Amino acid sequence: ATENGLLAPLPGKLSSTRVSLYADDAVIFANPDKEEVEALMKILKLFGEVTGLTINQEKSTVSAIRCTDLNLAEILQSFGGKQVGFPLTYLGLPITLG
Fold this sequence. Notes:
Blueprint: E1 19-22, E2 25-28, H1 34-51, E3 61-62, H2 72-75, E4 82-83, E5 88-90, E6 93-95
Parallel strand pairs: 3-4
Antiparallel strand pairs: 1-2, 5-6
């Protein structure tokens, strides 16, 4: 999606990993941009149509990392899950900003 211009590259030298998968959990890193979130949701919808797999919106969350002075409610309009802050728990481990 990045190579095709649907998603912008993530900032930073070590930011080439966009998706982390473990068992039935996934973490997707994206830029805080309304169009990018909409594109990501379309990609996930198409993935579901092709594979028959669906996203459980009740279990889906988004956590903004160092996103100050942004209207996250507007950016996340197309995201059906809930927004959670830090600290959070992922795979039983506490995740905090350091």
